[in-house]
Batch of 2 targets.
Target 1
Amino acid sequence: MSKKIGLVAHDKKKQDLTVWCGQSKDKLAQYELFATGTTGKAIIDATDLPVHLLKSGPLGGDAQLGAMIVEGELDGLVFFIDPLTAMPHDVDVKALIRLATLYDVPFACNKATADAVLTLF
Ligand SMILES: O=C(CO)COP(=O)(O)O
């Protein structure tokens, strides 16, 4: 069964994530990909990779990824966080990071760590 990877980026980081997905396309194509709504659509548009679309982050998409982690259904998380912009759903962002930490899920918050996480699988 293929590994399941979560992909998320805040608005100012979406381009970084879509570029990274394009660069990592062959590797990412081996996994089952899940993304928050707007991020996922941007990845599909940029790369044609198949992505399961969850709700948009502010509407619960981060919480859905957190629930997947709790259920043991996510093997890795790539979450390009914008550290310079306040988010209306900051509690959800923090909850997702907390759950990835709590459940020891490989978690990348930028390109350097995303490259490292991909080498784990
Ligand atoms: O807000 C997000 C993560 O906290 C991302 O959500 P979208 O992919 O829907 O923009």
Target 2
Amino acid sequence: MRPGSPRALAVRILLEVERGGRTQLLLDWALDRLSWPERDRAYATHLVYGVLRRLRYLDFLLEPHLRKPERLPPQVRCILRLGAWEWLAGKADHARVSPWVEEAKKVSPRLAGLVNAVLRRLSLREAPECVRLSLPDWLCQAWQGFFGQVAFAEGFNEPAPLFVTAYRSVEGLKPGPIPDSYLWEGGKTDFSALGLQPQNPASLFAARLLSPVPGEKVLDLCGGAGLKAFYLAAKGAEVVSYDLNPRRQEAGEKTARKLGLRVIYLTQDLREPLSEKAKKVLLDAPCTGTGTFRSHPELRYRLAPEDPRRMAELQLKLLETAARATEEGGVLVYSVCTLTEEEGEGVARAFLARHPEFVPEPIACPFPALRSGLGVYVAPEGGLDGFYYLRLRKVNSRS
Ligand SMILES: C[S@@+](CC[C@H](N)C(=O)[O-])C[C@H]1O[C@@H](n2cnc3c(N)ncnc32)[C@H](O)[C@@H]1O
């Protein structure tokens, strides 16, 4: 059955996310099938992302008013979180409470009174910082220890602007924080038909760090659908993009064609060595994705404390392949869209200990940095995703 209103859709999506679904996919899929006006689409998006970005804090605010929240029907728990989110966002009681009470009546009439009472009684409570930021304690404490603060994580709870990389000039686009990156202020559209590709500037910058030049061969390792490959190809490089996932690569091939760019896609497990080399190599490794909590808010509740270390083991294996594929005198850029110590500096330290033939190069990062020295950690401010970059030069080969 089609949801009749943004509120009903928000409840349904929150339930599906609770069962393991991915917010962005679910919401895009649902909105693509509903011919709703932009206002309703924006409202549903505000509700779903608002709740998921502040889930832990909302539950903390609701807690004093509920005896056994875990015993409530899941729909009613979602309705309470949605009503609490609108309260926190400043919506007046008269416009806020009764619509949620009406939603509650549809799923559990006997609990409509409870929803009404709880949503009217909400008040602010002093919360520990990790709760206020809706982060799991293990990650919040790890960030406090590593960066000396965790206030930057507030950036994950702001609405996400949509940035695009422009491969053609398009009138009226507002410039983003780095060249070729722009803010897209319209609704969803066929971006590649316009010569545009949705991409966070922090992701684009990883590709810029290779300083591509026309005619030069570049290996794009873990290239996925090829967002970074597009930029490198647009600068005239001959890009060979490797990934394990042929479905992503097929999607990339299709987009590259629409953008008028040439990228060669090859499918391979990169834990195994490559049979070719290049002067420029990019490894945009798979990671825990903690830098992308703004657009993937559910991720933070799904990660386990051992995940960064587990990912770092894989990243080191992939980096071995990338190192061997880098020609002497060449540049190897390692990037991950995550902010953990293990997957950033941890990987860098372990790799450099085994590879004296690689030396780190300074990075002139145009974004606010959380930490720099051995690579740079980008702060998730102003709509940027959190990223870690390391740029290495291969000075002399052991073999
Ligand atoms: C961060 S994503 C890459 C995003 C891509 N570079 C872009 O800019 O669009 C990481 C990629 O690593 C790939 N991957 C994971 N394990 C791999 C492996 N063992 N060998 C090759 N690719 C792998 C995944 O399929 C995924 O596409």
